[in-house]
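Good morning,

Attaching, inline, the backbone tokens for the sequence recovery test we're adding to the shared suite. The designed sequence is right after.
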């Protein structure tokens, strides 16, 4: 086994590879661009080398430089992860020439599978079933059109060198063929530097089912069953699962054996994925082979209990496969959701920015949470593969994936409910994400009943992109609870003073008025909630609902009782913005605290004034008191609401001009204040 390897990648996959290395006692060298100096993968590895500018071509795609760095740091092998150089035969060759092991297949296998048309010609010889189509060398437009007419519409035009869902066009009828061909060729040339295309029958309502294969240098080749990756947007995977719902043992074996035949046909070594497109009746056809570790490999790990990166390392070090075909078993069901920084409501446009707040569901890090593996913390079977932490930035330079959320259950239903729970506990503030969309997706009738095909998202558009639900009383109640709690905490600054009335104050002061109105802004609207104090408790009214209300807060975690209903949620406050997370929803409310800014703005002039006419109901400081920024100084009651005037900065209180019970006019000075220089 290796002592030290270099990981020529970034983000979650670099961390993923490093985690296994750490477990196996292999030292790791991370590489990083200008944009990634503080990235998680750099901190996670034993050493790190700076390799250039932020743009991938200036860093992560610099094959020769990466090889040089591997040699310089004494690494014996390079793991390419996925993307970047993982399917670059020149890089694999370059490693070998430099005396380094490329942790991946031989260059010849990458080359054989690199062109979709050449791969199909090979597969044809290996008797692997192919989608009816044309994948020949002759690219004469008239010939291509004749082939399309022969195959029958709709057909799919594909860039032979394509990947990542790019360079594909559906042609509905012969008339549209020429225009589609021109545009696919243009895109293929621009994206892949090769305008060769193939034509194939476009299947309606197909499923994407792929087989994980593994081969070693001793002539062994096995399949680790299938993954269903049918849920896609723009031909890109969104949810993946294993095993595929509805798969019979017989079909599983047939697909597994076809995949092994495909791998053997190109002398494959290491981890690979053979992608098939399957009809609803179960018939399946070879689509392409990805000659690397796949993004969605964790679902296979969860159901087989195997660590595929460990297998990759062992095979690359010349060992035989750890298990034979008959030793491999499927245990339970696993789902993966790709959490992206993107806006589903704006055509899934990537979003960039800082992860200002990040809370994740309790995870059993790394392997499946089967019996005995949970370590006693959190629900079993939740795994998070991520390359970012709170405070990190999703930059425009790389893939906007935040994390992969992977869950395991004894069956699909159990995995599904775990996924729903885990998504509900995944909280991000700072950029838009697809979390709420994923929640709707996994909760949709189509996905729950495994009515899967690649058009699932489009077909269920209305259910998956509903008009925003109106804000309900439980969201408002959580926001109110958070406001009351923050006021309570501010007052507690004075708690050491046993005579302070605030030490004994309840949710708010009864003599300050039994009714309080709190206003929240959302999407240009103002929502109004009323809290009415009664002898035996308080009542919260919002819209046309009212219920007895009480709350209990522990930091961001809030429990509210609304009559007989108990609701748990989280509220993260950023200034006046309250991010309420409840039941899988994230609602951002602006707390319209009329005094919050008034006090601060006036404070700069050395005096604190009343923003509206009202009555002073408490004075917490004396002239000459030295206070820190945010210390509550005085409380006013105006329009049946209480308002705390706080110190706008660290400083010293001047003259106190009003006492408890006195009326104050709007704009009147309440106290003097001298900010510390
Ligand atoms: P999969 O079928 O595993 O999703 P894809 O071909 O879509 O495979 O790509 C795998 C991952 O690698 C994706 O997350 C994609 O964003 C990333 N990727 C692909 N090509 C590149 C590239 N040239 N540079 C950086 N990342 C890439
Ligand atoms: P890429 O290299 O971009 O991953 P693939 O050939 O694997 O390209 O195709 C990506 C996706 O496009 C598939 O997962 C499937 O959803 C869709 N697709 C590909 N071929 C067909 C086809 N013949 N009929 C219908 N859909 C297809
Ligand atoms: Mg593919």
């Amino acid at each position: 086994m290796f002592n030290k390897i270099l990981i020529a990648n970034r983000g979650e996959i670099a961390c993923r590879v490093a985690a296994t290395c750490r477990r196996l006692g292999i030292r790791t060298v991370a590489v990083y661009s200008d944009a990634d100096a503080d990235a998680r993968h750099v901190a996670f590895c034993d050493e790190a080398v700076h390799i250039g500018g932020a743009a991938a071509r200036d860093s992560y795609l610099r094959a020769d430089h990466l090889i040089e760095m591997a040699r310089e740091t004494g690494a014996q092998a390079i793991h390419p992860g996925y993307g970047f150089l993982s399917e670059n035969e020149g890089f694999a060759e370059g490693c070998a020439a430099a005396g380094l092991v490329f942790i991946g297949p031989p260059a010849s296998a990458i080359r054989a599978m690199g062109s979709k048309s050449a791969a199909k010609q090979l597969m044809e010889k290996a008797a692997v079933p192919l989608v009816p189509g044309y994948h020949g060398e002759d690219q004469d437009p008239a010939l291509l059109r004749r082939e399309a007419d022969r195959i029958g519409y709709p057909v799919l035009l594909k860039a032979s060198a394509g990947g990542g869902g790019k360079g594909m066009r559906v042609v509905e009828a012969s008339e549209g063929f020429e225009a589609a061909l021109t545009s696919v060729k243009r895109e293929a040339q621009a994206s892949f530097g090769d305008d060769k295309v193939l034509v194939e029958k476009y299947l309606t309502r197909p499923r994407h089912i792929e087989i994980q294969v593994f081969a070693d240098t001793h002539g062994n080749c096995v399949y680790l069953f299938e993954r269903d990756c049918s849920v896609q947007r723009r031909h890109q995977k969104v949810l993946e699962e294993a095993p595929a719902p509805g798969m019979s043992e017989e079909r599983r074996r047939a697909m597994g054996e076809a995949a092994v035949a495909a791998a053997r046909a190109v002398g494959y070594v290491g981890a690979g994925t053979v992608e098939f497109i399957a009809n609803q009746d179960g018939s399946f056809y070879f689509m392409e082979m990805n000659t690397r570790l796949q993004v969605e490999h964790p679902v296979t790990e969860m159901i087989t209990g195997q660590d595929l990166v460990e297998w990759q390392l062992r095979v690359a070090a010349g060992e035989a496969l750890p298990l034979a075909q008959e030793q491999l078993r499927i245990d339970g069901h696993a789902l993966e959701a790709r959490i992206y920084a993107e806006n589903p409501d704006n055509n899934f446009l990537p979003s960039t920015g800082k992860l200002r707040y990040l809370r994740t569901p309790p995870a059993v890090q790394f392997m499946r949470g089967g019996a005995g593996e949970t370590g006693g913390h959190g629900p079993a079977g939740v795994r998070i593969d991520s390359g970012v932490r709170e405070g990190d930035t999703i930059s425009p330079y790389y893939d906007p994936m935040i994390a992969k959320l992977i869950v395991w259950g004894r069956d699909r239903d159990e995995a599904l409910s775990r996924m729903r729970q885990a998504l509900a506990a995944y909280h991000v503030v700072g950029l838009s994400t697809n979390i709420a969309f994923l929640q709707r997706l996994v909760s949709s009738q189509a996905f729950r009943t495994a009515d899967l095909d690649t058009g699932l998202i489009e077909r269920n558009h209305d259910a998956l992109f509903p008009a925003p639900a109106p804000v309900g009383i439980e969201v408002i109640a959580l926001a109110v609870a958070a406001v009351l709690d923050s006021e309570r905490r501010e007052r507690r600054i004075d708690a050491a003073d046993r005579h302070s009335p605030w030490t004994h104050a309840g949710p708010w002061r009864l003599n300050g008025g039994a009714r309080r109105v709190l206003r929240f802004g959302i999407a240009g609207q103002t929502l109004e909630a009323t809290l009415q104090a009664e002898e035996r408790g308080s009542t919260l009214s919002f819209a046309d609902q009212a219920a007895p209300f009480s709350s209990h807060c522990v930091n961001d975690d809030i429990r509210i009782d609304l009559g007989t209903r108990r609701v748990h949620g989280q509220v993260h406050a950023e200034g006046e913005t309250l991010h309420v997370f409840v039941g899988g929803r994230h609602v951002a409310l602006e707390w319209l605290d009329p005094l919050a800014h008034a006090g601060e703005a006036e404070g700069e002039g050395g005096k604190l004034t009343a923003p509206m006419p009202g009555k002073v109901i408490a004075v917490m400081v004396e002239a000459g008191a030295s206070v820190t920024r945010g210390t509550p100084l005085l409380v006013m009651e105006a329009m049946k609401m209480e308002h705390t005037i706080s110190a706008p900065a660290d400083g010293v209180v001047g003259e106190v001009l009003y006492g408890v019970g006195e009326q104050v006019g709007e704009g009147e000075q309440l106290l003097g204040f001298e900010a510390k220089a």
